[in-house]
Structure formats: C-alpha cells, structure tokens
Amino acid sequence: MRSKILPLLILFVITANNVMSQIVIDTNAKVEEIVTGIEQPEGPVWKEGVGLLFSDIKGNKICKWTPEQGKEIFLDPSDSTNGLTYDLEGRLIAGQMGLRRVVRFEKDGSQTPLAEKYEGKRFNSPNDLVVKSDGSIFFTDPDFNIPGGPKNKELTFNGIYRISPSGSIQLLDKLELPNGICFSPDEKKLYVNDSRVHKIYVWDVVDDSIIANKKLFYTIPVNGYADGMKVDEDGNLYVTCSSAVWIVSPEAKLIGKIDLPSNVSASNCAWGESDNKTLFITAGHSVYRVRPIITSNKSDDSFPTGYELYQNYPNPFNPTTKISYVIPVASHVTVKLYDEIGREVVTLENSEKPAGIHTLNFSAETLSSGVYYYKLIAGNYSALRKLVLLK
C-alpha cells in the first residue's frame, strides 16, 4: 500500500508558567498513513530489528509493519490482544482480553500467563501496560471488553495492578475506567487515563512498588474517550482522545495537538524508529506516523539549585539513549558506565563543565544486552542509576 500524507494541524499554546517559557514544535511535520484496512488497531510498540507491532482487536491478530515489507501478520489468532510492550529480556508482553490475562510470549513461541486472577477472581479485560526498569509490569483492567459481556464480570471494580519481578500481583488503586498508562521519564510518577470522564490522573511512585497521592492531572477539553498515551524524554504526555493526540506538559499545560482525520478515533501511540523520535498512532482503521519534535527552553526562574542525575531515556533502550544531569556550579564531571557486577565498562564524561543542564548521547552498539549502571561524580556529589540495554 502506498503511504498517504495528511495535513498536520497543531494547536500551539505558549504557557505563562515559569518552568516552560517557550514551546517550539516542528511545523514541517506531517502525519503519514502507513497502514489501513485494520478492523480495530491498538497497542503499538516498536523494537529495533523487528519493526512496529500492533494489535487488531476485532481481527484477532497481531500485525507487524516495517518500512521494507509493509504490513504482515505476526500472530493469528491473538486471543484479542490489546496493549503490547516488551520486558527487559525483549519478550513481548500483552493484555490478552480474550483470555482475560496478561501474557508473555516466549522466544520459542509458547505463552506464559503472568496474571489471570486477583484474589481468586478473573480479571475483567487487561488493557494497557508498561514495564518498569526493575522488571515489574503495571497494567490497567477496565471492564468494557469482558468476553461474553458484563454478566461475566467477577471483580466488583476496575483496577490498576502491578506484577512484581517475582510474579506476585498487587492491586494499586481503583478507577472508574482505567486505560492508558505510562511513567514519567524518571519513573517517579505514574499516569493513568480514566476513559469514561476523559481525565488523566497521576500518582507518586513510592519504593518502586506503591502508588500514592492520587491527583487529577489534566482534563482533556473534548467529550472524547481518553485512550492510550506515552511520554517523551522531556516528560510531555501524548494522549490519544477523539480524533487527535493531545500533548500535555509535565506542568499539566496543553502545549500542542496532533489532528487526525475527523472521522477516526485515536486509540494509542508509541515511539519508534532508530532514534525513538517517530510517534506511531493507531486510529480508526489505520496506523499513522509523525515526528512531532518539541523543544522547550527553561526560564531563568526555573534554573535548578542543586545537583541531580536523571534517569536515562529511553529505558530500556537499543542501542542509543540520553543521560542528563544538572550541576548548579561549574564542576569537574565524570560519568562512568558499569556492568551488573560493578566492573567499569566505559567513561562517558571526564571534563570541566559549566553550571547548567547537560545531556550525553550514549550508544551501546558494541555492548551486549543486560543491566548496566551509570555513575555521576561532580564536586562532592555522586549518584548512581540503572539502565537496561535490550537488543
């Protein structure tokens, strides 16, 4: 199929908030329809070397798209998979609504159920999910796709859950209709859409395993259906609702909107391609892609007053990622990478740096998949964070 280029209409909002003094969106970006003829596309996920996978819920398939081959069938039947992601070992994880479970697809083709019941009762219809850097899986379980209809609902609520690395299942919170789910880049915040009221809620992530301090983060200003969402490296949320993707800053300000054809309903989105800058969007009966490059300039009032090492983004990554840090005064900075048992692998930075925010572009093309750690030393400050290379 020949791809179709569509106009891109972006609503600009320049905020008065001190944290975000200027927003710049690439006005040359165009929305491109790359796949059509899908019954109900959902759950896109990109993996370098594989391409884009996405669910066709009503078609009961998982499809694959690459620039070279176009659309192919990846799995048929799929038991009505919805959200898709990868775990730290590169295995596909899915919300499998037809069997009311979260499942892992092993590399030999077999399927391993990860979550089927909570306190002896079957889940409703596991929808969307996200993997944390410690290997735990957070997922939403609304009730709008229960096989056989509402009469088969066993739980009396719709929940947000966590599957620990050891496999235990934990109810984190309840929501009217939980759907799209994602972390902030540093994984300190968890965002979840409540589809029925087109609202986004945010929680603090405590000790990697508990969410607390629930707050209403943003209400999408249309009577649409808030569905899947993703976050970019600056913490901006990309939320699918109605016939658009709404771009909301970490300060809960609307900073942009990617319009799709008015007769489609956007269902989910995912970052992809080699630099992780292309946004793939499932909507209507099609899949679209666009490169909505956003940069934000910080005002002087928001300049950090302390040292900080940020979580790399993306994480997991393959093979490139960004590592950012803040130094409030000019300092000699070293950033080193270590393997899982503490052996030094490479020095990423070893020089004098002026005060400010700095970003390293790190390529792990020559390294093997696995868990690594990066350490910043600047002045009397040091910090260590984990990153995961997934090839």
UniProtKB/TrEMBL annotation:
It holds the Pfam family Por_Secre_tail. Gene3D superfamilies: 2.60.40.4070, TolB, C-terminal domain. Substrate binds at N127. Keywords: Hydrolase, Metal-binding, Signal, Zinc. Transmembrane segments: none annotated. Its cofactor is Zn(2+). GO terms for molecular function: hydrolase activity; metal ion binding. InterPro entries: 6-blade_b-propeller_TolB-like, Secre_tail, SGL, SMP-30, SMP-30/CGR1_Lactonase. It comes from the Bacteria. Residues 41-284 form the SMP-30/Gluconolactonase/LRE-like region domain. Residues 1-21 form the signal peptide. Residues 313-388 form the Secretion system C-terminal sorting domain. A divalent metal cation binds at E42, N179, D227. The keyword Transport does not apply. The active site is at D227 (proton donor/acceptor). Binds 1 divalent metal cation per subunit. PANTHER family: LACTONASE DRP35, LIPOPROTEIN-RELATED. This is Gluconolactonase. It comes from Melioribacter roseus (strain DSM 23840 / JCM 17771 / VKM B-2668 / P3M-2). The lineage of its organism: Bacteria, Pseudomonadati, Ignavibacteriota, Ignavibacteria, Ignavibacteriales.
